[in-house]
Design goal:
CATH architecture of the largest domain: 3-Layer(aba) Sandwich
Radius of gyration: 29 Å
Order of helices and strands: HHHHHHHHHHHEHEHHHEHEHEHHEEEE
Largest sheet: 9 strands, mixed
Helix content: 40-55%
Number of domains: 2
Number of helices: 19
Shape: elongated
Structural class: alpha/beta
């Protein structure tokens, strides 16, 4: 068929031409190896800092063998790196004749007269290696796209992950001497003290922010509770406080992954809470004419809010990573990232990417993946978690939860930077009928990797699903108890 032949021709034309040379510079590769032979100290260390121990940075196989031989000698405390020693090392592994013998090594030694530009040569070779890796990933991806059995969503995630790994490999973290950064960090602390820098993103709860610093980049913040205590409501309250221009002087962009509620349910919950209304006034026809102004004001508050809602059920870690990464890496019109915070509701509804031996191992893999996501994207991740039934069995509904009550895995406790428990007597809410009535609640700060722990008193308004501070927080009040 003409259309089919046209598609095949177009696809074939898009594949890399087999006669095109891959990006490489053999002369510069020889220059780097020559520098390592001429001045092993410090040239071997410079090359290691740029390449790691990966010989694939060198495109030519001969150069890879020589690089590997130099590293083998450098690893040995009683051996020196020179032409004779490298020749002997290659002879030992049966590669000397393959690379051209001692004659080639002697010629290689005389390739450069100075090693002053070694670092810039290494950077260029690393960039060429990155291009080759990109070509390999893209070529393999195109070939896999032609596979009739290809799973498009899974393939897309794998391609994104491969490209992201290449990007991360380029962002090398070098060892720094303390005297080179101590002055900068002193200035940073001064700016924090003067209010010029925001340590973390404010949750809107002053006492919680005072002892955690807010939601900080790279951190995993766990909010756990038993069923029907209000963890989703508290998370949505925090999202409102972060995202609404009317509530924050610096509104943030939030990605909310809800595994148990639909987009419509979340939107209604946010709208009614902001308006101070209960959803039931619509279902039982008790909506008052005066309530309309509250709704219109709430709608106006959300008009400029940047909240992304993903209601995908049964989300896997790889899917979450792909979705969050895509949002984070897609800049807004002003050049800033599209999201500042990720919120997940809730952890135990997620799935690991691969089959694991037991649910505890699966939850451990999920928890580890969430922590890695926070570090990779350098943004805070607020993840909700379910508590096991043990807390009710041992001491009843009024029992305060502990770290051991985190459902299905202790790995959550290990991975999280901050663990909080939302606690209240579930039966108290049964007596509430008015939007102005509240019940007592506690936010127990059980683990704080970089700060204090304690208990924060809250009021919960069940009809409008809103938490507020029990009393205004003052710094002189001291830590929570």
């Amino acid at each position: 068929m003409p259309e089919e032949r046209s598609m095949t021709k177009t696809a074939s034309a898009s594949l890399p031409a087999p006669d095109r040379a891959l990006p490489a510079d053999p002369a510069m590769e020889r220059a780097v190896l020559s520098a390592m032979l001429r001045e092993p100290i410090p040239c071997v260390d410079i090359a290691l800092s740029q390449f790691g121990r990966n010989p694939e940075v060198f495109h030519t196989q001969v150069h890879r063998e020589i690089f590997a031989a130099i590293l083998a000698l450098a690893d040995h405390p009683h051996k020196q790196v020179d032409v004779v020693a490298v020749a002997h090392q290659l002879q030992t592994v049966g590669k000397l004749e393959e690379i051209g013998g001692e004659v080639f090594l002697a010629e290689l030694y005389g390739t450069v007269a100075t090693t002053v530009n070694l670092e810039s040569w290494c950077i260029t070779l690393r960039e060429l290696f990155t291009l080759r890796r990109m070509i390999a990933v893209c070529s393999e991806s195109m070939l896999r796209c032609f596979d009739p059995a290809a799973n498009a969503p899974r393939l897309l995630e794998e391609v994104e992950t491969a490209v992201y790994n290449i990007r991360n490999a380029e962002n090398k973290t070098n060892c720094a001497e303390i005297r080179d950064c101590i002055v900068d960090q002193f200035k940073y602390l001064q700016d924090v003290l003067d209010g010029k820098i925001e340590v973390g993103i404010s949750t809107g709860f002053a006492q919680l922010d005072a002892y955690t610093g807010g939601l900080k980049p790279g951190e995993m913040f766990v909010l756990a509770a038993r069923p029907s205590i209000g963890k989703t409501s508290l998370a949505l309250n925090i999202i409102r406080n972060m995202a609404l221009p009317t509530r924050s002087p610096r509104p943030r962009k939030v990605a909310f992954f809800s595994l148990e509620m639909t987009t419509e349910q979340i939107a209604r919950r946010l709208l009614c809470t902001e308006a101070g209304l209960s959803e039931t006034v619509f279902w039982n026809k008790t909506f008052q004419p005066g309530d309309m102004s509250k709704l219109t004001q709430a709608i106006s508050a959300f008009r400029d809010a940047r909240i992304y809602i993903d209601p995908t059920g049964g989300l896997t870690i790889s899917e979450l990573r792909a979705k969050a990464r895509r949002l984070r890496m897609t800049p807004d019109a002003d050049g800033t990232p599209s999201i500042d915070v990720v919120v997940i509701d809730y952890l135990q509804l997620m799935h690991a990417d691969n089959q694991t031996d037991g649910r505890q191992n699966e939850v451990a893999a999920i928890s580890s993946g969430i922590k890695s996501l926070a570090k990779d994207l350098n943004i805070p991740v607020l993840v909700l978690a379910q508590l096991n039934r043990e807390v009710d069995k041992t001491a009843g509904a009024s029992a305060r939860p502990k770290l051991s009550h985190l459902r299905e895995s202790g790995a959550i406790e290990q991975d999280a930077d901050i663990v909080t428990f939302l606690h209240r007597n579930r039966d108290d809410a049964k007596e509430v009928s008015s939007a102005s009535q509240s019940v007592e609640a506690e936010l127990i700060l059980e683990k704080n990797r970089n700060g204090r722990t304690g208990v924060i008193k809250l009021n919960f308004f069940p009809t409008r699903m809103e938490f507020t501070a029990a009393s205004p927080y003052r710094e002189e009040d001291g830590p929570p108890t």
